[in-house]
Amino acid sequence: MTKITQPQRLDLIPPSAPFSEEQRAWLNGFFAGLMSMDDAGVVALSPAENAAIAGDADDGAAPWHDPTLQLQERMTLAQGRPLRRRMMAAMAQQDCGQCGYDCQNYAEALFTHKEERLNLCAPGGKETARMLKTLAQERDAAPSTGMEPPAPPSSPSTSAPGRSRDNPVEAIFLSRRRLNKPASEKETWHIEFDLSRSGIDYSAGDSLGVFAQNDLGLVDQIIAMIGASPLAPVKGKSLREALRDDYALSPAPDRLFELISFLTGGETRAKARALAQGEDRDNDAADLDVLAALMKFPGVRPHAEAFVEALEPLQPRLYSISSSPKAAPGRVSLTVDAVRYKIGKRLRKGVASTFLAERIESEAPLKVYVQASHGFSLPDDPNAPVVMIGPGTGVAPFRAFLQEREAVGAHGRNWLFFGHQRSDCDFFYADELNAMKSSGLLTRLSLAWSRDGSEKFYVQDRMREVGRDLFAWLADGAHIYVCGDAKRMAKDVERALVDIVAQYGARATDEAVAFVAELKKSGRYRQDVY
Fold first, then answer.
1. Angle CA(316)–CA(164)–CA(371) in degrees, nearest 5?
2. What gap in Å lies between CA 210 and CA 194, rounded to an integer?
3. For all residues of the chain together, what is the average pLDDT?
4. Rounded Cα–Cα distance for residues 362 and 375 (Å)
5. Alpha carbon distance 530, 528 (integer Å)
6. How many whole angstroms separate alpha carbon 109 and alpha carbon 361?
7. Which of 78, 97, 297, 381 is the most exposed place for a label (fewest CB within 10 A)?
């Protein structure tokens, strides 16, 4: 009888690696399967294991579904999975809804050819679009198996008015009010719209999709660079109107570099082709918007129609809603950072943020839609305690939550962590929040200012400082919500929470990680990150 030796467990992914416990376990299992050894050496993989690695099997888990991971980390976690699952891993994993789907259903729609647009993942940008293009080529080259996964939901274009990017409604811009005081280094605005004639409503926790217009100054510079007439007809509009309303002008898409390569020769053509293929010979690809690309290849004069066909469509932008419909019927508000930065001597502007901050006029109409939250909503139990962590514009949905809880008379305790650079000029909604604190609606208000002292101090530092009390709230059944930056803040907050659970819950680190994972699984830890 042949002795069967159990393969030794190989922990190839160390605890210090930037993965969750679930992600580390899956990776260790995957690579252990590839490297299993028996007494004589290499053990042949079973047919089932071979099928899994070849992509014919799937265990249903999605360890890559984490917005804090970089693209290559996500693709590593998806290695060996079916193509449709690797398509999902290519997404930015935010389930933000800007594409009109969630990440999984967008991938399924692409895989089954029910959706042909590869560039809808706004948070993933060009990086995701390139990966999806590569995966789509793999899809198209593969022989048909005659089997398809379950069909994704119906096309978003069939949704009710105002409920998807493909079926927006008209709102009226009412006002903007700057939230920072003059000494601030930031520029953040409270924006209000009238929805009373739009026929739509929303819930606290939802987001608003806004269709912005490009800056006409930028549009006119681009038209001058290609030597075209602003009145040149393009798809039923003038070139100037089309570039203002319909086309993204940042970043420069690969197809624009392909077009430039067709119109040039020699080293210039080689350089344009390299950029189209994702190469970065001059180390400036990340800085190339459409105008910068034209300036890099001066003298290129494409026909207006060919030029716009090489551009990507202008995508709507999603913002967390910062009001409750119960507190302001028929209105909706946003909290928006105006994005402005310099590259070389040129001032760059965020499309939607500066459209709202400076270009749109009072009483002007604009297209919008409501993106329902994916579970980022208040607990069903009005008596449940709520902890909200939202520095900067991350405070937006929590202003809505507090208004909502006040309007419905919820008795649950509320604790808000807010932070920014300076207390004297960056304390958004200070009067409102202090009034809520005085009235008892806001049980605790914990503040963190990164530039007030000699050392930077953030919301995660404040969390650790009051960790004993925070763990007591968790023990009482508190729900935790985090809103803001996915890559840094959200990761730091989760790490702080794990440390707090370990310290005040008398748990080992892996037990604390599992505790936080269970909070997520049960819906008591939710994130709205970007």
1. 80
2. 13
3. 89
4. 33
5. 7
6. 38
7. 381
